[in-house]
Specification:
Layout: H1 2-37, H2 39-46, H3 55-60, H4 70-80, H5 98-108, E1 114-121, E2 135-136, H6 138-149, E3 162-169, E4 177-184, E5 196-204, E6 207-216, E7 220-224, E8 229-237, E9 240-248, E10 254-264, H7 273-280, E11 290-296, E12 299-305, H8 311-328, H9 335-349, E13 365-367
Parallel strand pairs: 1-6
Antiparallel strand pairs: 1-2, 3-4, 3-13, 4-5, 5-6, 7-8, 8-9, 9-10, 10-11, 11-12
């Protein structure tokens, strides 16, 4: 009996040991499986602050239900910064080239000189202000301009009253920067008329060049715009007005795009005086008769307008128009032909046709 009980006890012990062995092996397999298939998931659940966010989330994640952490903001900020290996940002109109800007500023502080270029544009109706090939400091430039315009017979002043400067960019695809200096108070037309002269300066390979000069007064004005376009206005008398558009090129010189001289009434006799006298005589004044002379590049185009003339006067005007065509070979053209010629001129200069009709104002800064 005792022997049977002992055998039963041994059997129970062996069975328990075998069971523990099996259970131990199964537990080992479960831990191994969890380590292979769910380790990242378990870690992320237990320790969310240790979770590594994939790079793609920092740049593309925008859904509002997912909060952006401080670490994500740091990554986004770093991505927006320019690294030493990155390309520099593209220049805009407001970003002047540093080298040119500093050289321009040195000139304004009398620390360097400007050389009057051989190609400097001057007014064809007067002697040039600046001597080609000569260098000037800012102070010397102002002295030369004052001496040129201020006549001691009409004023006691020996110097301009104030000066200003501004920057423009050439309207071609280079967008070159050009400095304009305005000298105000020159009494060109009358005493204290606030007339002024402007000198354009362009930097080239470390040297400043004066490339253009022009003056503005009661009967002659040139308005410069930030895109390098210039609108010209003027008058040679009550019936002789002119207007036009010019542009600064990348070398700082000014070139005309088109110019229009508009003649009214008696002033139309400039076209063919002999024919005019025979058609209209001394007693008829064709006050509403208008003739426009358009210079576009090297070509000249003529137009006329008799829309406001009386029926009686229209007959005389048409006779005069025909004689100008027959005797002088004048070819009268339409507005469409003028527009086409202006567009061709813009294309040749590398300037957009729409640009010439844009007038962004420039900022004039005072010079002490």
């Amino acid at each position: 009996m005792k022997k049977d009980k002992r055998n039963i006890a041994i059997t129970i012990i062996l069975a328990a040991a075998w069971t523990c062995l099996i259970l131990s092996g199964c537990a080992g397999k479960k831990e191994s499986a969890a380590g292979e298939e769910g380790e990242i998931i378990l870690d992320s659940i237990n320790n969310p602050e240790d979770q590594t966010v994939p790079d793609t989330q920092t740049s593309t994640q925008t859904t509002p239900q997912v909060p952006v952490t401080a670490a994500d903001e740091t990554v986004q900020s770093d991505e927006n910064q320019t690294t030493p290996d990155s390309d520099p940002p593209e220049n805009t109109d407001s970003q002047a080239t540093a080298d040119s800007g500093s050289l321009y500023e040195q000139f304004l502080r009398n620390e360097t000189t400007v050389l009057a270029a051989d190609s400097i544009l001057t007014d064809e109706y007067r002697n040039p202000i600046l001597e080609k090939g000569r260098s000037y400091t800012f102070t010397e430039l102002g002295q030369v301009i004052s001496a040129y315009f201020l006549n001691p017979e009409y004023t006691d002043r020996t110097s301009y009253t104030s000066a200003q400067y501004a920057y423009v960019n050439s309207p071609d695809n280079t967008g070159a920067q050009i400095l304009l200096i305005k000298f105000i108070g020159l009494n060109i037309y009358s005493r204290d008329d606030d007339s002024y002269a402007i000198v354009a300066i362009k930097e080239d390979n470390g040297q400043l060049y004066a490339t253009a000069e022009y003056e503005c007064w009661a009967r002659s004005e040139t308005l410069a715009y930030r895109n390098g376009i210039l609108n010209d206005y003027g008058s040679s008398g009550a019936g002789d007005h002119y207007s036009g558009i010019s542009a600064f090129l990348s070398d700082g010189t000014v070139t005309p795009i088109y110019a229009t001289e508009t003649l009214y009434g008696w002033w139309t006799s400039y076209i063919n005086d002999a024919a005019y006298q025979e058609v209209f005589g001394q007693d008829t004044e064709p006050g509403e008769f208008i003739v426009s002379i358009n210079t576009i590049g090297e070509e000249i185009y003529y137009q006329y307008d008799i829309g406001e003339c009386t029926e009686e006067l229209k007959i005389l005007c048409e006779t005069y128009i025909d004689r100008c065509q027959q005797e002088q070979g004048i070819n009268w053209v339409s507005d469409e032909e003028i527009q086409h010629a202006v567009k061709a001129r813009c294309d040749k200069l590398g300037i957009g046709y729409d640009t010439i009709n844009q007038n962004p104002e420039i900022t004039w800064n005072p010079l002490d």
